[in-house]
Write a structure and sequence with these properties.
62 helices, alpha+beta, 40 strands, 41% helix
C-alpha cells in the first residue's frame, strides 16, 4: 500500500534506472527527485527537471537528503536544507552543463576549455565543503572562491547576476528592494571595476649563474634601487651559489626564493631597478695559481640590473637571463649599478667569462594575506621575505621592530710603510659592555641566517676603498643599551701565507648617554691604530676613547691630530620601541623637569607622527597626568595636544592606531575628572567660532570631537563609578549648554567668507559619531531629542554653500545609519527632521544619489521591522511627505533636459495627476536601460511591485474614471503601461532555461497573464468608451497577442472581435481595424514575433466569435485576409533567416509584395518590399531582375514636379528627379544583366525628357549611353539561359510554394543537374521525384516536401524579329529567351500495340504547355504556372514536325556556309552526313512504311493533308540536301573529299528509296540570280510552287514561322526506341570543339556527331519581311520533335542538359524560297515557270546549266528592292488555316506511289552532283529546333473547334495592329512588341526578284487569300488580369 512520505522527501539518483516496470520513472545518475509516496522498497515521485511526469522507482537507487517542505499537500515544495552555496553550485553547474556543450557546437573552443577548468575547480571545492572538515576560516575562504568562480562563469555565459550576502544567495523577498538594489550594485561594480591593489610584491627566484669559467663559490645580492634618489629602497636578498653557479641549498627554497614585500604604487616606477651584485669567494686575483694562497677573500665579480618597468605588463618573466657586467676599475665597484643604469659604457664592460644570470620574476598585487591565500603553494614550499627599508606605508599597532641598518660606506687609510696601497678588509662585531660578542645579530640579507661577524669584500691595493654594503642588525631592545659596534681593519697579504694583519679599529655606541639612540645619518669614525696582537676583548680600554670625529671634546684634541685615517658608516634605525627624538623623551620624562612642561606641550606638534604613535599610550598617559597636575595652567595646552594626536590618527598612515586609542580609552584611561576640563575647553572653542577670524584651529578641534566625546563620556563614567553618580544633573546641564552653543553656531548663516560654513561642515561630518557615546549616558529618547534639535537648527535657506548642503545630507545619512535611528522610539522623533531635509534636497534636485541612499536605508528598516505597528504610521508620514516630490523628481531626471518650471513644484491636485504620474514612473522603471542587462532578479522584483500596485489602482480607475467622469488620458496611460509591461524582455519566460523558468513561475507566476487578464477586464468595463481606443490600441494589443503564451493569447485575441463589433456599430465597417492590423503585423512579425500557432489561434478564435454576428461575411473576409498576410509574413521571416540569398527568399518577397499590391493595396508597404526585393537581387547578382523590380516603383511615378518626402534611402526631391534617378539605376542594372534592348527603350524615354527640357548635356550623355548599348548587343556574347519547371508538393513547403508549380530561369551555365542540386540544397528536407507525371492527392497532402524538376522549352511570343532574314544572331538571341509567357514540354509514349519493326507507327507525343502569371525574365527568376494545357500529337504529326525542323536546320547551316559565316565546315558536314546516312539506312523508309501504305491511308482518311505534307517535306529535304552537297563540294577541304564522295553516292541511294532516281533529268534549267552575285545554276522547277517569287504560293505553315533558332541537337525518342530513331534521324550534336575548328584538312573529323555551331547566324527570306496578318499569338510554327527538352528522353525526369556551346542556332529559310509540288497547277505551268533560287555556290558569275541537252539559260535577275512586298510574301508569318497546309483542298487526292513528280520537261537531264533544285528528302533529326507558341497539332485542334472566317487581308504592313492582345503584359515589361518601322534586311540576305518575266504570265493569286480567310485563330484563354496596375502608361 502506498503511504505518503513524511521525512523522505528529497533525494539524488545514484544509479540510472530505465523505468522498464509498469509506471516506472526513467532516471539518470545525478537527477534530483521529489518523493511523494513509498511502498515496500519503492518510491513514487518525479524528477525535478520534469515535474509533470510522475512514476515509481526503487528506493535503493536514491540517496536521501535532508529537506524542508513548504506548503504541504498537493502543491508542496521541497527545499534541500543544505548550505545555500552548495544548492546554488549544483543548480548553476546543471545550467552550465547544457550551455558548455553548446559552446563546443558553436566552436568557441577557448571559452569551452576555460569553463571546463572552472567547472572542475568548483566541483573540487564543492567536495571540500560537503566533507565538512574545513575550519571556519577555511570554509569562508572556499566559499569566496566558489562564488567568485560562479560569478565569472555566469558573466561569460551571459547569465544573470546573483545577489549575495556573505557568499550566500539572497532571497529578494527577505530584504527590501533598496537593499537588493544596493547588493546588486555592489556586485556589479565589483565585477566592472576591479579594485586597484595599493600593495605590490615582487617574487624573485634565483635559477643559476651561467658562466664559462667559474670554479669558485659566489654570493649573489639582490636589492631594489631608486635611481631618482640614488638609494636602495629595500633590504637585501642574499644567497650563495656553489662552484657550478647553482644555489647551494636547492632543498631549501627560502634560500633561493624571496618576496620583496610592501611596495607601494609610488614604487612601481620606471626609475626603480632590481640590482644584483655578485661577489666571488676565493683568491685575490681571479687567475692566480691554486697554491698561491690558501686564504679565501670576498672579491667583486659582477653586477646586473633590470628595470622594474619591464614587469609592469603583469606577465611572469620566467627564466630571464640578465647580462653580468664588471667595472673597468675596482675602485668604482660601489657605483657600478648606477653606471649601468646611466649607461656610462666607458666605466664597465661584460665580464670576461661572459656570464649570464638566470632568474624568474613575477609581480604580485594585493595585501600580503591575500597573496598568501592565492599563492599558497609559494608560501607552503618556503620563501624568504625581504622588507622595505624602514616602516611600510601603513604602520600596524603591535608591530614589533627594532632594526638598525648600517651601511659600510668607505675608508681612508695610510700606506703604513708599504710601497703599494693596502688590501683592506673590514670585520664587524656587535659587542656588549662586558666585552662579549653578541651572537647571530648581523644579517647580510633575507635568505641567509644572521651571523656573528661580518667580513667586507677586499679591493685590491686601494687605500680609499668604498664598499657601500648594507647590513641589518636586528638587536633586541634589552641588548641595545650599552652595546656598541666594533670595526676591525686588516691588510690582506697576497703572498703565499695569505696573512690578514690587524692595523686599526673603530667603534660606535648604539645609545647615547641621554637615552637617545645613535642618530640616523652618516658618521665619520676615528680609526684607532693597533698592532696585530692587540687584545680588543677588553672593551674598557677603548670605550673611553672618542669614536667619532663629529662629537670630539676638548680633552681629545691631541688624539685627533695623531690620526688622519677615517672610516665612514651610515646608520638608520627602524624601531617601535626606541626613539632618537629628544623632545619626545623630554615629554615622557616631564616629571623630572616640571619647568619644561609648557615647552614640551608646544613642541608636540613638531614631533614626527611615527614617534608619537610608537609611544601612543605613554604620550596619552603623560597628557592626562599633566592635566591632573594642574588643569588651570595646562588645560588648554593639553586639550590642543590631545586634538593634535587624535587628528594624527586620521592620517591614512596611522589610522590603524585608532583601535589602539579605543583600547586605551576603554582599558587604560583613568582621568575621572578630565571631563570637566574637556567640556569647558570645547565649549569655549565652540562659543568663539562665530567671532574668530581664523577657523583652522577650531576646525581641527571640531574634527576631533568624536574622540573628545569618548574621553568625556569615559571620564564621566569613571567619575560616576568612583562617586556613585554624583553631580549627574550638573553634567547634563554642561552637555545641554554645550549643544546649545553648537545649535547657535549651526544656525548662523555664513556672510561673506565661507569660513563659518566650512566649520559647520566639519562639525556635521563628525557629529553622528557622537550619538553612540551620548547613548552610554543618556536615555535614547533624550539623545534623539538632542539630535533632532541640533539637526533642526540647520539653516534651511537654499542659497547656502553647496558643499555644506552635501555635508548636511551626509550627516542625515549617517544619522539614519546610526544605532539611534534603528530604535523605533527614537526613529519616530528623528523621522520628521530627516524627511524635511530630504524633501528640500529632492525639490532642489541636489545630491540625489545621497538622497536615494538615505531613502534606501529608511526603507530597509521598514522592511526589517515590518511586523511592528509603528511601521504603518511611519509609512503614512513618509508617503505624505515624499511621495509626490519623489514621483516628480523621477519624471524630471528621466526626461531631462527640461526647465524645472513652477508647475513641477506644485503638489498634485487630485487623484488624476497622481495616477498619471505613477503610471509614467512605472513606464520609466520598465525601460530596458533602467537596470544592467544581467539584473533579472531586480527587474522581476520591480515588476512584481508594479503589477501589485496596478491591480490596486485598477479599482481606483473603475470607481473614479468611468461613465460621465471618463478620462481618456488616464485610461490610455493605463493601457500603454500594461502593454509595455507585458512586452518586457525579462518576462518572456520562453527564452529562459527550464530551471530559471521554473524558479520564476514558482515565485511570481506568469505576470504577463495576470496583466493580460487585467487588461481584458478593464476593457470590458469601458463600454461605449471603447470607441476612443479604436484603432489606437489595435497595434499595442496585437503586439501582446503575438507573445507565445497560450493563456495570454486566449485572453487577448477576443478583444479584436470586440473592436470589430464596436467599429461596425460606429461606421458600418471595420476598415480602420483592418488597416491598423495589417500595418502593425508587418512591422511586428519582421521583428520576429508571432508563429504558426498564433496564426491558427487568431483564425479559429475570431471565426468562432463572429459566428452569430450580422456582419459575419465581412468579418470572415477580414480574418482571411489577415491570416493570409500572416502566412506570407511568417514565410518571409523564416526565409530571411537563411544566410545566403536564394530563390526561396526572393520568391517569398515577391509573394508578399504582390499581396500588398493586389489584395491590400498598401502602396507604402508595397514600395518598401520592392526595395527589399531589389536589394536581394543585387546581392544575388540578378541584375536583370533587379532592374525589373525597380521598374515597379518607377512606374508608380510620373514626370512631374510634385515634391516627394524623404523615404527609405531617397532624399527629399521632386517626382521628376526621383524618376530620373530610378531610370538611370534601372538602365545600369539592365546593362549589368546584359538586357541591353530594355535599357535602350528606357534611354529613349529619358532622352525624350531631357530633350523636352532642352537639357542637351544630359541628352548627349544619354544618346551616347544608348549607342554604347547597341554596340554591346553586337559585340558582346550573351548566354541563353535554360528554363526549368519546378513543382513543390507537400504540406511542409512554405505557403507561397505549397502544391504549386513554377518555371525558373536558370543561371548562366546552369544545367539541369546543377539546378536540381541547387534546389535540393535550398530545401535539404525535400525528396526529388523521379518521374514527370502529375502527382496525386496523397503527395499534395503529405507531411513532407517533394520536388519535381524538369527542363522546359521557352516559346517566344514575338516572331517578327526571329523570322527576318539577315538579323544577326546577337539580336535574335535576346528575343528567344526574353518576355516568355509560355513553355513547352514533350513526353513520347506508345499508344496501342508497338510495332517492333517500325515503332514510328505508334509513337505519340504528349505536349504540355505551361502559361505563367508573368513573363520571364521579370521581378523574379521564377513565376508560378497559371495554366497548363496538354495535347497529344499523332505519330504522323510528330514525323512532320521532325522533318520540318531538320529541313530548317539544314537550310540555316547551308546559308551560313554560303555567306561565309562559318569558320569551319564541319557542322554542315556532320549534319549532311547524319541526314543522308539515316535516310539510306532506313530512316525515311520507316516513315514511308508507316504512313504511305494503303492500309494507313484507308484507315486514316482525315490525315490526307498531313500525309501529303509529309511527302512534300521529304521531297523538300531531298532538294535541300542536293543543294547542300553542292555548297559542301565547294568548301570541303581536300582531306574530306572521300567523305563528300561517299555522301553524294549515299544521296543517290536515298533518292532511289524515295523513287526520284530520275529527278535530275527532269529539272529545267533556269537562270538564278544570287544576291551576293554568285553564278546561278539553271534548274527545271517542276512544280510552280517551287518558285520563291512565283505567282502561286501555298499558304501553309512554313518553317519560317518558327521564331526560335535550333538551340539543341537531336535527342532519342525514348529509351526503348533510341537506336532506331538515331538510325532514322541521323542525330547529331554540336560542340564548341567542332565549331571552333579551322577549315583545314586536319580538323575535320568524319566520326564526329556534331551538327551545328552556336555562332551560326540566322537569315530569313524576303517573304519574311511582310507584316503579320494575324496577331503575334498566331504566328505558329511546328515544334522540332516529340522529345523532352535538352536532348533527353522524356522518361528521364532530370535530363542532362547540353552545354550552351552545344546548342544549335539555326536559321530559317522563307517558305517562298522552297519549291513545292502543286497538283492544282497544270503541267505547262509547272514546267515553264522559272524559279530563281536563293541557294548559290559562287559569287560574281552566272550559273550555267550543267546538263547536256536543253541549255536554256535565263538572264540574270537584278536584286530585289528591300521594301518590295507582294501577295506572295505576306503569308509566311501568319498562322495558317488547315486548308493552307497542302493543296489537297482544291484538288483530288494524289497518288502516294513513290514515283517522280508527274511532269518532267523533256530532254532536260542533269547528272551533276551539284544540284540547284530544292526538293526535300523528307528526313530530319528528331532534335529540338525552332519553337513557337503553340504546336501545329494544337492549332489544328483549336481551329477545328472554333471555325470562322479569319480577318486576314491580303497585305499587311509592319505597323498593322493585327495582334490580338490576349495577354496583359506585366507592368514591368520593357520591350516594345511592335516595331516602329520595318527593319530593312541586309542586301546580302534579301531574296532576288526574277529579272525577266516568266515565259507565261503567272496566274493571279486570287484564290489564295481564301485559304487564309477560312483559317481561324487558335482559341485564346480569357484575357489575363494585370496583376500590378500602374499609374503611368506602359513603357
Amino acid at each position: 500500500m502506498w503511504i505518503p512520505t513524511e521525512h523522505e522527501k528529497y533525494g539524488v539518483v545514484i544509479a540510472s534506472f530505465r523505468g522498464t516496470v509498469p509506471y516506472g520513472l526513467s532516471l539518470e545518475i545525478g537527477d534530483t527527485v521529489q518523493i511523494l509516496e513509498k511502498c515496500d522498497g519503492w518510491y513514487r515521485g518525479f524528477a525535478l527537471k520534469n515535474p509533470n511526469v510522475k512514476g515509481i522507482f526503487p528506493s535503493s537507487y536514491v540517496h536521501l537528503k535532508n529537506a524542508c517542505v513548504k506548503n504541504k499537500g498537493q502543491f508542496e515544495m521541497v527545499i534541500p536544507t543544505e548550505d545555500s552555496v552548495i544548492t546554488e553550485m549544483t543548480s548553476t553547474l546543471r545550467d552550465w552543463g547544457t550551455m558548455w556543450k553548446q559552446l563546443y557546437v558553436r566552436n568557441e573552443g577557448d571559452l569551452f576549455h576555460r569553463l571546463w577548468h572552472i567547472m572542475n575547480e568548483i566541483l573540487d571545492l564543492r567536495r571540500q565543503v560537503l566533507v565538512g572538515h574545513l575550519t571556519h576560516d577555511r570554509m569562508k575562504d572556499v566559499k569566496r572562491h566558489i562564488t567568485a568562480r560562479l560569478d565569472w562563469g555566469n558573466e561569460q555565459l551571459g547569465l544573470d547576476l546573483v545577489p549575495r550576502k556573505e557568499y550566500a544567495m539572497v532571497d529578494p523577498e527577505d530584504i527590501s528592494i533598496t537593499e537588493l538594489y544596493r547588493l546588486m550594485e555592489h556586485r556589479h561594480r565589483k565585477k566592472d571595476t576591479p579594485v586597484q591593489a595599493s600593495n605590490h610584491h615582487l617574487f624573485v627566484q634565483m635559477k643559476s649563474l651561467m658562466c664559462s669559467n667559474l670554479g669558485e663559490e659566489l654570493e649573489v645580492i639582490f636589492s631594489l634601487f631608486d635611481s631618482k634618489e640614488n638609494r636602495p629602497i629595500s633590504e637585501r636578498f642574499f644567497l650563495r651559489l656553489n662552484r657550478n653557479g647553482l644555489p647551494k641549498a636547492p632543498d631549501k627554497p627560502e634560500r633561493h626564493c624571496s618576496l620583496f614585500v610592501d611596495l607601494g604604487s609610488s614604487e612601481l616606477r620606471r626609475d626603480i631597478y632590481i640590482t644584483v651584485h655578485i661577489i666571488r669567494i676565493g683568491r685575490m686575483g681571479a687567475g692566480e695559481k691554486k697554491n698561491a694562497c690558501s686564504v679565501q677573500y670576498r672579491r667583486p665579480f659582477g653586477c646586473a640590473v633590470l628595470s622594474i618597468a619591464d614587469l609592469l605588463t603583469g606577465e611572469t618573466k620566467d627564466d630571464l637571463i640578465l647580462k653580468v657586467y664588471m667595472c673597468n676599475t675596482e675602485s668604482e665597484w660601489y657605483q657600478i649599478h648606477e653606471n649601468i643604469i646611466k649607461k656610462l659604457n666607458a666605466r664597465y664592460n661584460l665580464t670576461g667569462s661572459n656570464a649570464g644570470l638566470a632568474v624568474s620574476l613575477q609581480l604580485l598585487h594585493g595585501d600580503i594575506e591575500q597573496i598568501r591565500r592565492e599563492y599558497s603553494s609559494v608560501f607552503s614550499h618556503g620563501v624568504s621575505i625581504t622588507r622595505k627599508l624602514g616602516f611600510s606605508n601603513i604602520i600596524m599597532p603591535g608591530e614589533m621592530r627594532n632594526d638598525l641598518y648600517i651601511t659600510i660606506e668607505r675608508g681612508e687609510f695610510e700606506k703604513g710603510g708599504k710601497s703599494v696601497a693596502r688590501n683592506v678588509e673590514v670585520t664587524m662585531f656587535i659587542v656588549e659592555n662586558s666585552g662579549q660578542i653578541l651572537k647571530d645579530f648581523i644579517s647580510f640579507g633575507s635568505g641567509e641566517p644572521p651571523a656573528s661577524e661580518y667580513h667586507s669584500f677586499v679591493l685590491y691595493h686601494n687605500n680609499s676603498p668604498r664598499w657601500s654594503e648594507l647590513l641589518k642588525l636586528p638587536i633586541p631592545v634589552d641588548k641595545f643599551r650599552g652595546a656598541h659596534i666594533r670595526f676591525e681593519f686588516r691588510h690582506c697579504s697576497t703572498k703565499e701565507k695569505g696573512e690578514k694583519k690587524l692595523f686599526g679599529f673603530s667603534f660606535v655606541p648604539l645609545m647615547q648617554e641621554d637615552g637617545r639612540t645613535l642618530p640616523d645619518g652618516t658618521h665619520e669614525l676615528i680609526v684607532h691604530k693597533c698592532e696585530e696582537n692587540t687584545n680588543l676583548q677588553d672593551t674598557t680600554r677603548y670605550l673611553k676613547l672618542p669614536f667619532s670625529k663629529g662629537i670630539l671634546l676638548g680633552n681629545n684634541h691631541q688624539a685627533i691630530k695623531a690620526t688622519k685615517e677615517s672610516f665612514w658608516i651610515t646608520s638608520f634605525l627602524c624601531s617601535t620601541k626606541l626613539t632618537q627624538n629628544g623632545d619626545m623623551l623630554d615629554l615622557l620624562k616631564w616629571r623630572t623637569h616640571p619647568d619644561k612642561i609648557t615647552g614640551c606641550l608646544s613642541k608636540i606638534k613638531e614631533i614626527d607622527g611615527s614617534e608619537i604613535v610608537k609611544f601612543l599610550q605613554d604620550t596619552l598617559d603623560t597628557l592626562f597626568g599633566i592635566l591632573d597636575e594642574n588643569s588651570q595652567k595646562y588645560g588648554s595646552k593639553v586639550f590642543d595636544s590631545l586634538v593634535h594626536i587624535i587628528n594624527l590618527l586620521q592620517d591614512s598612515k596611522f589610522h590603524h592606531f585608532k583601535p589602539v586609542m579605543d583600547t586605551y580609552i576603554e582599558s587604560h584611561f583613568a582621568g575621572a575628572l578630565a571631563y570637566r576640563d574637556l567640556i569647558k575647553v570645547l565649549k569655549w572653542y565652540v562659543d568663539r567660532i562665530t567671532e574668530a577670524e581664523r577657523q583652522e584651529h577650531i576646525q581641527e578641534v571640531l574634527k576631533a570631537q568624536e574622540y573628545i566625546f569618548k574621553y568625556i563620556v569615559q571620564s564621566r563614567r569613571l567619575f560616576s563609578l568612583a562617586t556613585g553618580g554624583q553631580n549627574e544633573e550638573e553634567f547634563r546641564c554642561c552637555i545641554q549648554e554645550l549643544l546649545m552653543s553648537v545649535r547657535f553656531f549651526l544656525s548662523q548663516e555664513s556672510k561673506g567668507s565661507g569660513a563659518l560654513s566650512q566649520s559647520q561642515a566639519v562639525f556635521l561630518s563628525s557629529f553622528p559619531a557622537v550619538y553612540s557615546e551620548l547613548l552610554k549616558l543618556f536615555d535614547i529618547r533624550e539623545v534623539a531629542n538632542l539630535v533632532q534639535d541640533t539637526l533642526g537648527s540647520l539653516p534651511t535657506i537654499v542659497h547656502v554653500d553647496d558643499s555644506l548642503q552635501a555635508v548636511k545630507l551626509q550627516c542625515i545619512g549617517k544619522t539614519v545609519e546610526s544605532q539611534l535611528y534603528t530604535n523605533p522610539d527614537s526613529r519616530y522623533i528623528l523621522l520628521p527632521v530627516v524627511l524635511h531635509h530630504l524633501h528640500m534636497h529632492l525639490q532642489e534636485q541636489k545630491d540625489l544619489i545621497m538622497c536615494a541612499r538615505i531613502l534606501s536605508n529608511v526603507f530597509c528598516l521598514i522592511k526589517k521591522n515590518s511586523s511592528e505597528k509603528s511601521v504603518l504610521e511611519e509609512i503614512d508620514v513618509i508617503v505624505a511627505s515624499l511621495l509626490d516630490i519623489l514621483l516628480r523628481t523621477i519624471l524630471e531626471i528621466t526626461s531631462r533636459p527640461q526647465p524645472s518650471g513652477s508647475a513641477m513644484r506644485l503638489q498634485f491636485q487630485d487623484v488624476t495627476d497622481f495616477l498619471l504620474q505613477i503610471f509614467t514612473v512605472f513606464r520609466i522603471l520598465i525601460r530596458p536601460e533602467m537596470f544592467p542587462k544581467d539584473w533579472t532578479v531586480m527587474r522581476l522584483v520591480a515588476n512584481n511591485v508594479i503589477i501589485t500596485t496596478v491591480l490596486y489602482l485598477s479599482d481606483a480607475l473603475r470607481k473614479n474614471f468611468l461613465n460621465e467622469n471618463f478620462d481618456y488620458k488616464i485610461w490610455d496611460s493605463y493601457f500603454y503601461l500594461a502593454v509595455i509591461f507585458i512586452n518586457q524582455l525579462c518576462l518572456q519566460l520562453e527564452m529562459f532555461t527550464p530551471s530559471k523558468k521554473k524558479k520564476v513561475l514558482e515565485k511570481y507566476g506568469d505576470m504577463r497573464v495576470t496583466m493580460g487578464c487585467e487588461i481584458f477586464s478593464m476593457w470590458q468595463n469601458l463600454g461605449e468608451h471603447k470607441l476612443h481606443f479604436i484603432p489606437a490600441l489595435i497595434g499595442p494589443f496585437l503586439e501582446v497577442t503575438l507573445i507565445p503564451q497560450p493563456d495570454l493569447r486566449n485572453v487577448m485575441i477576443p478583444i479584436f472581435h470586440d473592436m470589430m463589433d464596436w467599429e461596425q456599430r460606429r461606421s458600418g465597417n471595420f476598415k480602420q481595424v483592418e488597416a491598423k492590423l495589417i500595418d502593425k503585423l508587418d512591422s511586428l512579425m519582421s521583428e520576429g514575433k508571432g508563429d504558426e500557432t498564433y496564426r491558427e489561434l487568431f483564425n479559429s478564435i475570431l471565426l468562432k466569435k463572429i459566428e452569430r454576428e450580422t456582419w459575419r461575411e465581412s468579418g470572415v473576409s477580414l480574418i482571411a485576409t489577415v491570416t493570409r498576410l500572416m502566412e506570407r509574413l511568417l514565410d518571409y521571416r523564416d526565409c530571411m533567416k537563411m544566410g545566403e540569398v536564394d530563390g526561396k527568399k526572393i520568391g517569398c518577397t515577391v509573394s508578399l509584395l504582390n499581396f500588398y499590391k493586389t489584395e491590400l493595396n498598401k502602396e507604402e508597404m508595397y514600395i518598401r518590399y520592392i526595395h527589399k526585393l531589389y536589394d536581394l537581387h543585387l546581392k544575388a547578382q540578378n541584375f536583370t531582375e533587379a532592374a525589373y523590380t525597380l521598374l515597379l516603383y518607377d512606374e508608380l511615378l510620373e514626370w512631374s514636379d510634385r515634391p516627394l518626402r524623404e523615404f527609405l534611402t531617397y532624399p527629399m526631391q521632386t517626382e521628376w528627379q526621383r524618376k530620373e534617378h530610378l531610370h538611370l539605376a534601372i538602365i545600369q542594372n539592365f546593362d549589368r544583366g546584359k538586357c541591353w534592348e530594355n535599357g535602350i527603350i528606357l534611354c529613349r524615354k529619358i532622352a525624350e525628357q531631357y530633350e523636352s527640357y532642352y537639357d542637351y548635356r544630359n541628352l548627349s550623355k544619354m544618346r551616347m549611353m544608348e549607342a554604347s548599348l547597341y554596340d554591346k548587343i553586337m559585340d558582346q556574347q550573351r548566354l541563353e539561359p535554360e528554363f526549368f519547371r519546378v513543382g513543390f508538393y507537400g504540406k511542409k513547403f512554405p505557403f507561397f510554394l505549397r502544391n504549386k508549380e513554377f518555371v525558373c530561369r536558370g543561371h548562366d551555365y546552369e544545367r539541369l543537374e546543377a539546378f536540381q542540386q541547387r534546389m535540393l540544397n535550398e530545401f535539404p528536407q525535400a525528396i526529388a521525384m523521379q518521374h514527370a507525371n502529375q502527382p496525386d492527392e496523397t503527395i499534395f497532402q503529405a507531411e513532407a516536401q517533394y520536388l519535381q524538376i524538369y527542363a522546359v522549352t521557352p516559346i517566344p511570343e514575338s516572331q517578327e524579329v526571329l523570322q527576318r532574314e539577315g538579323v544577326p544572331d546577337n539580336i535574335k538571341s535576346f528575343y528567344k529567351v526574353n518576355h516568355i509567357w509560355k513553355f513547352r514540354y514533350d513526353r513520347p509514349f506508345h499508344k496501342g500495340t508497338k510495332d517492333k519493326e517500325n515503332e514510328f507507327k505508334s509513337l505519340w507525343v504528349e505536349r504540355t504547355s505551361l502559361y505563367l502569371v508573368q513573363s520571364l525574365p521579370g521581378i523574379s527568376r521564377w513565376f508560378e504556372v497559371e495554366k497548363r494545357e496538354v495535347v497529344e500529337m499523332s505519330p504522323l504529326e510528330n514525323a512532320i514536325e521532325v522533318l520540318e525542323n531538320k529541313n530548317q536546320q539544314l537550310k540555316t547551316l547551308i546559308s551560313q556556309c554560303q555567306t561565309r559565316q562559318m569558320q569551319n565546315i564541319n557542322p554542315l558536314t556532320m549534319c549532311l552526313n547524319g541526314v543522308i546516312d539515316a535516310a539510306v539506312n532506313g530512316g525515311v523508309s520507316r516513315y514511308q512504311e508507316a504512313f504511305f501504305v494503303k492500309e494507313y491511308i484507308l484507315s486514316h482518311p482525315e490525315d490526307g493533308e498531313k500525309i501529303a505534307r509529309l511527302r512534300e517535306l521529304m521531297l523538300e529535304q531531298a532538294q535541300i540536301l542536293e543543294f547542300g552537297l553542292a555548297v559542301h563540294e565547294k568548301f570541303v577541304p581536300q582531306d574530306m573529299r572521300p567523305l563528300h564522295k561517299k555522301l553524294v553516292d549515299q544521296f543517290f541511294v536515298m533518292k532511289s528509296s524515295l523513287g526520284i532516281q530520275e529527278f535530275s533529268a527532269c529539272i529545267q534549267a533556269s537562270p538564278v540570280h544570287f544576291p551576293n552575285g554568285s553564278p546561278r545554276v539553271c534548274r527545271n522547277s517542276a512544280p510552280a510552287s517551287m518558285s520563291p517569287d512565283g505567282t502561286r504560293v501555298i499558304p501553309r505553315r512554313s518553317p519560317l514561322s518558327y521564331p526560335a533558332v535550333n538551340r539543341y541537337s537531336s535527342s532519342s525518342l525514348s529509351s526503348q526506341a533510341s537506336a532506331e530513331v538515331s538510325n532514322i534521324t541521323g542525330q547529331s550534336e554540336s560542340s564548341d570543339e567542332v565549331f571552333n575548328m579551322q577549315p583545314s584538312p586536319s580538323t575535320s573529323s568524319l566520326s564526329s556527331t556534331h551538327s551545328a555551331s552556336p555562332n551560326v547566324t540566322s537569315s530569313a527570306p524576303s517573304s519574311a519581311r511582310a507584316s503579320p496578318l494575324l496577331s503575334d499569338k498566331h504566328k505558329h510554327s511546328r515544334e522540332n520533335s516529340c522529345l523532352s527538352p535538352r536532348e533527353r528522353p522524356c522518361s528521364a525526369i532530370y535530363p542532362t542538359p547540353v552545354e550552351p556551346s552545344q546548342r544549335l542556332l539555326f536559321n530559317h529559310i522563307g517558305e517562298g524560297a522552297l519549291p513545292r509540288s502543286d497538283p492544282n497547277l497544270s503541267a505547262p505551268e509547272k514546267a515553264v515557270n522559272p524559279t530563281p533560287s536563293s541557294w548559290s555556290l559562287d559569287s560574281g558569275k552566272e550559273a550555267k546549266n550543267m546538263s547536256d541537252s536543253g541549255k536554256i539559260i535565263s538572264p540574270p535577275v537584278p536584286p530585289r528592292p528591300t521594301q518590295t512586298a507582294s501577295p506572295a510574301r505576306h503569308t509566311t508569318s501568319v498562322s495558317p488555316s488547315p486548308a493552307g497546309r497542302s493543296p489537297l483542298k482544291q484538288g483530288s487526292v494524289q497518288s502516294f506511289t513513290p514515283s517522280p513528280v508527274e511532269y518532267h520537261s523533256p530532254g532536260l537531264t542533269s547528272n551533276s552532283p551539284v544540284l540547284s533544285g530544292s526538293y526535300s528528302s523528307g528526313i530530319s533529326s528528331l532534335s529540338r529546333c525552332s519553337t513557337s507558341e503553340t504546336s501545329g497539332f494544337e492549332n489544328q485542334v483549336n481551329e477545328q473547334s472554333a471555325p470562322g472566317p479569319g480577318p486576314g487581308p491580303s497585305h499587311g504592313g509592319p505597323d498593322e495592329p493585327g495582334r490580338k492582345e490576349s495577354k496583359t503584359p506585366p507592368p514591368y515589361s520593357v520591350y516594345e512588341r511592335t516595331l516602329r518601322r520595318p527593319v530593312p534586311l541586309p542586301h546580302s540576305l534579301s531574296i532576288p526578284v526574277a529579272a525577266e518575266p516568266p515565259a507565261l504570265p503567272p496566274k493571279p493569286l486570287a484564290a489564295r487569300p481564301g485559304h487564309l480567310e477560312n483559317g481561324t485563330r487558335r482559341t485564346e484563354p480569357g484575357p489575363r488580369p494585370r496583376p500590378l496596375p500602374r499609374k503611368v502608361s506602359q513603357l
